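Filed under: proteins

Residues; backbone shape codes:
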Amino acid sequence: MVEMSREMIVFFVLAIFMVLFIIFAAGMATGIVPSSMFHGDNLIDSAFNGIKGLIGV
């Protein structure tokens, strides 16, 4: 039971990082994520900007 929950937690965390990486990579590749993310802006705001751009808002 404990091993199963650990595996699920690790998988969940890795899945979150993969999604964030894909969003950032796609955003930078298409120029959606602003270059200001490299100047100390909040990464969460940059992630939301990338999501908005990918959705087309």
Q: What stands out?
A: Residues 50 and 56 are 10 Å apart (CA to CA).
